[in-house]
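User: I'm preparing a small set of examples for a lab meeting where we compare how different chains pack in three dimensions. I only have the primary sequence for this one, and I'd like the structure in token form so I can line it up with the others. Please keep the answer compact; I'll paste it straight into my notes.
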Amino acid sequence: MKSISVYAVDSFANEIFKGNPAGVCILNEELEDGTMQLIAKELKFSETAFIMAFKDNIYSIRWFTPEYEVDICGHATLAASHVLLNEIKIPFGNILYSGNKGIIKACKEDNEEISLDFQIDEPETNIPFNYEEIAKSLAIDKYLNVFCGKLTGKLVFELKNEEEIRAVKPNFDAMKDIRVEGLKGVGITANSDNEYDFVTRYFNPWAGVNEDYVTGSVHTLLAKYWSSKKDKNFLKAKQLSPREGDVSLHILDNGRVKLSGRAVLVLKGEMFI
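Assistant: Understood. Below is the structure token output for the 273-residue chain.
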């Protein structure tokens, strides 16, 4: 029997029980994929990050939902960074993660937020599948636009305003019956006229997560979309889930985007396997 250190962190939040909870497992040696999948299923977070040190501030990172491994996860990466920088207190101001989609840089900012440097996703309006059944499962009759991420495979509907976003009540059983190759989740978004530039919600019942609380990866797509619409490179977003959460976005000149937010430790312990 061996033990691994396990943390629960609320990401994109200023206080516990807000934002998006994630699991973080610190590995001293590699685990089999099946074991990591069982751990993620046991912890029941929307995503659990498994990280292991390579050298100095360089770590490998992988993300698992309760159902399967995913290519990228923003909130669990933020959670892992919070653990390394604020709990383990590694002697570095930044972290380099080696993940399935390349290198991700995390950095602690002066305002105590942690920023994550991701490749920006391009919105594609020429969608190669019938998305009307998905709109129907969301009970969406009208929408202003629909697009899909070239990198993330996430489908997003733009609605008229925040009220319409809040009013959407998906039929998750109907969504699960829809099978589209390459589809990695569905978001809805709308312009915001208050302190935020836009709002969003995100659903992925295919991954065992009906509604995700705060979704970093979909904001790599929304960053490009709303930056183009609003002609600005600094954006502030709110995800209107039951727990809500704030995401700051900075579109860089090199085809990447910085997602920033705060995180709060909820619990830590040892798992015996």
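A couple of notes for your slides: Residues 131 and 155 are 9 Å apart (CA to CA). The mean pLDDT is 94.

User: Perfect, thanks.
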